[in-house]
Amino acid sequence: MTDSERPCCGGRRSVSDDGASARSSDAADAARAPPAATTPATADDDRTDSMVRLDGGTFRMGTDSDVGFPQDGEGPVRDVTVDPFYVDRFAVTNADFLAFVRETGYTTDAERFGWSFVFENFRNDADRGRTLQHVDAAPWWVAVEGASWLHPNGPSESVLDDRELLKHPVTHVSWRDAVAYADWAGKRLPTEAEWEYAARGGHEQRRFPWGNELTPDGEHRCNVWQGEFPEHNTGEDGYVQTSPVYAFEPNDYGLYNVAGNVWEWCADWFSPDYHTTSAYDPDNPTGPVEGTDRVMRGGSHLCHRSWCNRYRLAARSKNTPDSSTGNIGFRCVVDAAD
After folding, report:
1. Among 173, 178, 196, 179, CA closest to 59
2. 175-185 and 94-104 helices cross at what angle (nearest 10)?
3. pLDDT tens sequence across 138-176
4. Contact 241, 171 (CB under 8 A)
5. Using a CB cutoff of 8 Å and minimum separation of 24, what contacts does 129-132 make?
6. Fewest C-beta in 10 Å: which of 37, 45, 140, 157?
7. Which residues lie closer than 8 Å to 182 by C-beta, 6 or more apart?
């Protein structure tokens, strides 16, 4: 198996050759699309608190570099145009998601299914008897009974046990959970094009938000894995697991952690080559009309150059809409009024 075929995020809930256990889900719900547009917002709209307005325009999306994986479809570079929109400065936090759950009583996919994927070294010792299965292709991922957004490393601990964790990005949320939160907030998930436009911060073809070196002058600019993966993370960037959503310097649009920390769900179905076909429209592209996996962008605290060099701005990954793990989160966008 090549590195590009290894599951970045704990495999899938559906039957696949990665060894993940099967789970039933409502096919219609899995295919549910986020709203095509939100009610346009202005600067005094309550929804735009902690958001940045981006004017939109044309930018160079993707990369022709050979540092990625051909099967991911990062290239070729193409001109893409997006309309103005507002985007969250930060990934949605545990505190944000807690407010949503308390108001709506929402139950996440992980809670409905009864388990979620936890990185093996982070699993609580008290919960080792709750391990259901390892992922054959990525044995550092284990299915833990009772793991969820509220109990990210297993049910014996809660994000409510440590107030600092409320400032960390919510994890163990599926694409469907992210859409439900966005609907509640009057927002939506970004298209993949909007995500990359925002993450680039107004710069063309940089590898990272700050330039082309991961650690310029030895300085850590994002939360990714250091050391030998998956045996030992030295935590040289200050974090072994997730970091607060405001950690590290933002990009030049004021967005935090668009590289590393947690993967972020996008609205689009994933395809490695749809953008090379005649059906592709580079004007506000929304991806193919159907698929099996949704796009994720940005990489996570578990990414390491030895096997998952996907914390670059052009890098892409995917997972099924009902999948949840300890390194997937999201941020939202709102359409901007003229």
Report:
1. 196
2. 70
3. 899 999 999 999 999 999 999 999 999 999 999 999 999
4. no
5. 130/154, 130/155, 132/21
6. 37
7. 34, 188, 189, 330, 332
Q: Which of 315, 308, 302, 172 is nearest to 243 (CA)?
A: 302
Tokens of 232: 């030992």
**Residue 251 CB: number of other CB atoms within 10 A?**
24
How many beta carbons lie within 10 A of that of residue 88, not counting itself? 25
Q: Are strands 328-329 and 263-269 parallel, antiparallel or unpaired?
A: parallel
* Residue 265 buriedness (CB in 10 A; 0-12 / 13-18 / 19+): buried
In the prediction, which pLDDT does 326 show? Answer: 98
Model confidence over 225-278: pLDDT tens digits? 999 999 999 999 999 999 999 999 999 999 999 999 999 999 999 999 999 999
pLDDT score for 31: 47
How far is the C-alpha of 203 from the C-alpha of 190, rounded, in Å? 19
Residue 6, C-beta contacts closer than 8 angstroms, at least 6 positions apart: 137, 138, 307, 308
Statement: the pTM of the whole predicted model exceeds 0.85: yes
Sheet holding 138-145, edge to edge: 115-119, 138-145, 131-135
Tokens standing for residue 120: 């093996």
Paired with 141 in beta bridges are: 119
1, with CB counted inside 10 A (0-12, 13-18, 19+), is: exposed
Q: What is the mean pLDDT of residues 201-221?
A: 97
